[in-house]
Write a structure and sequence with these properties.
Strand order of the largest sheet: 19-20-21-22-23-24-25
Shape: globular
CATH class of the largest domain: Alpha Beta
Largest sheet: 7 strands, parallel
CATH architecture of the largest domain: Alpha-Beta Barrel
Oligomer: single chain
Number of domains: 2
Structural class: alpha/beta
Strand content: 15-25%
């Protein structure tokens, strides 16, 4: 496969075609050019799709001169038309290495909240993308979700509770895999908990500030009781535990809600009820890590795993994106200390953006954080936001150096921390090779698998 595929164009009739000559450049931060040595694209994965970038003109590379060419007009069926640039959207399990390159016109709208990835055309392979297959666990594949029988499964359980009604929307409309898993009774199942949040993330997918775009999800409108959350959790841990031992998990903190730690009292009660009923499976929280005392209460109740989200391990860039309310970056670090002291499995949900996250200063700060708090896993999560919007926000706060490349960032983290898992999905109790079940969980009857 050639290192530099040909340029893709989106035509006004909705079709996508390749340019006969021009090559497809890539973007890292604000830099546009060819991909790094040895960084070849891969075939567009199953479950991936192409996306038009409205109002953004394609930019190609002249293979003879190496110069960038903006395509303002092309000929199609005998007419001169204005093409749009094309990007790819990846399925779960893949981490993008480059952003799409384009020329933004003054009237171009802000893009919807997707993680836009550089794409091109190869005559032998077809559509290709600049990405890494960072998590190859087949039970999380697109083929194992959104199956033909899912609507029937959802209908059978939709009216069990307000939670299953919410999860029905998430499973069918948003195609959330953790929501779908509740109805499949497999692997990691979602328990949304909170309608409020103590951060105002620029890229929040469930609530946007006025004038900042449209959220891709609608936030749940009513929080569930501790009893309802516990009932759903007990059912999933026991039922999925029959077929997915070692992988079964329930997780608070989903895309359809706010920050779960703001309801720590109800979650703590729910965890206590779950652990009183079953020792199976993992109980996890996906969180911004803002409330260390609240996290301590959950650890005491029987929490064994947490995934803490961040876009940077440096205070300035973190707070510029999260815009925390009544907490700071230092509180996030205190939460990580609480998790380490409690012997929890610690994962970082790293919102990854090529050209920012992979700068040496950013990687060094992240590596130090991993070492200080004994982080077990880094989940690379493609940041879903208009690339120009995030770069404009991040550039003034990011470390002032040249990006290493996403692939090199991952290699460096693994070199610095042997045993560190870098992937895209949470790990159940039976999948944590470097983690030992702490005594506090053994007392609660939690099974190692």
């Amino acid at each position: 496969m050639p290192a530099h595929p040909r340029l893709l164009l989106a035509l006004p009739d909705g079709s996508v075609t390749e340019h006969p000559v021009l090559l497809a450049p890539v973007r890292s931060g604000s830099d546009v050019g060819v991909s790094g040595p040895g960084e070849r694209p891969i075939a567009l994965p199953e479950g991936g799709s192409l996306s038009r970038l409205p109002g953004q003109r394609p930019v190609g590379i002249d293979p003879e001169s190496g110069e960038l060419v903006v395509l303002r007009e092309v000929e199609s069926e005998g007419k001169r038309v204005r093409p749009d640039a094309v990007a790819a959207v990846l399925p779960p399990g893949y981490t993008r290495t480059y952003l799409p390159a384009s020329h933004r016109t003054p009237l171009a709208p802000q893009l919807p909240q997707w993680a836009y990835t550089a794409a091109g055309w190869d005559d032998e392979t077809g559509f290709v993308v600049h990405a890494l297959h960072t998590d190859k666990r087949s039970h999380w594949s697109a083929a194992s979700h959104s199956t033909d029988d899912l609507p029937e499964r959802v209908t059978a359980r939709r009216e069990e509770s307000s939670l299953t009604r919410q999860l029905a929307v998430c499973a069918l409309e948003y195609r959330c895999f953790t929501a779908q898993n509740i109805f499949y009774a497999q692997d990691e199942g979602a328990i949304p908990a909170s309608t409020t949040c103590n951060a105002r993330c620029v890229g929040c997918i469930s609530e946007q500030q006025e004038g900042e775009g449209v959220a891709s999800h609608e936030r749940m409108d009513a929080p569930a009781s501790a009893e309802a959350m516990a009932e759903l959790g007990i059912a999933h841990l026991t039922q999925a535990g029959e077929t997915a031992r070692g992988r079964v998990m329930v997780s608070f903190g989903q895309g359809c809600e706010g920050e779960p730690l703001t309801r720590w009292k109800q979650i703590s009660e729910a965890i206590g009820r779950m652990r009183a009923a079953t020792g199976r499976g993992s109980i996890n929280i996906n969180t911004n890590g803002s409330l260390p005392d609240a996290m301590a209460a959950l650890v005491d109740a029987g929490l064994d795993s947490a995934r803490v989200s961040l876009n940077s391990a440096r205070k300035s860039l973190y707070e510029a994106y999260y815009r925390p309310v009544h907490y700071t970056w230092e509180d996030v670090e205190r939460t990580l200390a609480v998790l380490k002291q409690g012997g929890c499995y610690i994962a970082l949900n790293l919102l990854t953006f090529p050209g920012i996250t992979d700068r040496p200063g950013e990687v060094a700060a992240l590596s130090e954080l991993i070492g200080t708090y004994g982080v077990h896993q880094v989940q690379t999560r493609n940041l879903a936001l208009d690339p120009d919007q995030y770069f404009g926000l991040a550039a003034p706060h990011a470390s002032d150096d040249v990006a290493l490349g996403v692939a090199e960032m991952i290699r460096q983290l693994k070199r610095d921390h042997p045993g560190l898992v870098v992937g895209n999905y949470s790990r159940g109790l039976g999948e944590r090779s470097t983690w030992k079940l702490p005594a506090r969980l053994k007392k609660l009857g939690v099974e190692a698998r």
